[in-house]
Write a structure and sequence with these properties.
Length: about 325
Amino acid sequence: MKRRQFNTLAALSATVGTVFAADEPIKIRLAHSLSTTEPAHLAAEYFAKNVAERTKGRVVINVFPGEQLGSGKEINEMIRQGANVMNITDHGYLSDFVPDIGILAGPYLVKDASEFNKILASAWYKGVETQLEKSGLKLVMNNGFFGQRHVLANKTVSKPEDMNGMTIRVPPNPMWIETFKAIGARPATIQWSEVYSALEQNVVEAVEAPVGSLFGSKLQEVRKVLSLTGHFTSFTTWPINAAFFNRLPKDVQDILLQEGKRAGDEMTRLTLSSQQSYVDRLKAANVSISTSIDLAAFQKITAPVYKKFPKWSPNLHETVLAIIK
C-alpha cells in the first residue's frame, strides 16, 4: 500500500473508539472509484443530502469520487480495520472477507434487478450478511443496480473465440478474473483511474464495464467498438465498519439503513433510465455498437467458473439459482 493510503487510514481510523458527543457532527467519508457523472455517484450525493436533512446536520457525509482515498480493495481493507469510511463496492470484492458472497458477481447469474431482489430477501443472503458483520463489515446499502457490463475494444466481440488471447482490464476480484480466463482472454487487474492510459498506451487491448462507467471515464476516446456481451449484471454495496456503526446512536443507525435502501432504489432508477442515453452518446462519439452476440456460447463457456471456488459452501450455485426461480 502506498504511503498516501497509510496516512489516509491513520486519519480515517482516528475516531474508531470515540464516544459521539450530542453537540458534535458525526463525519463519515463515502469513497468510490467512479466519475461524478455516474448514477452511483449521484446516488451517493442523494444519500448524503437525505441523511443530513433527516439528522438535522448531525451526520455529515462527504463523497470522494475517483479513487481519491485509494483503490476499492484498499478502502475495503481500511473499513475492516476500523476506519469511519464507507465504500461503493460490490459482492465480488467482499468475497475477500466472506467467500460465498462472491457468487453474486458471477457471469450470467441474474437477468435484472427483480431477480437480484429475490436473493436480497432470502434467508441465505441474511446469513451471508451476518457473516460479513462478524468479519467487521456492515452493509448500509446492497441493492444499487450498477448495470450490465460490456466489452469495449477496437474490434467486435460476438463470440468467445473473438477474445482468445485478448488482454482485457478487469477489476481485481477472483470471480471476474476467472470468468475472463474461461473465455480465453488474458485478464489484467489495473486500477480504474489508470485504465484510460493503459488503453491509450496499449498496455491492455480492451476493458469491460457498464456503459455509464465507460462514458464517464471517456474511454470512447481510446477504443471504438462496444460489444453488448452483458457478461455480468452488477450491483453495488456500501459497507461501513461494523463496530463503528454499532456505536452510533440507534436513531442514526436507522436513518443510515433507511436512506441507504432509498439511495439504492434511486441508483437503480437512474441506471435504468440512463443506459440508452449513454449508448446514444457513445454512438455520437463514433463508437460502433455491436448487438449480434452469441450469448449462449458465452454462457456455456463461463458456466464452469462456478466450480472454481473450493472455499464456497457445497452446492452454493444451485442454492442461489433455486432462490431466483
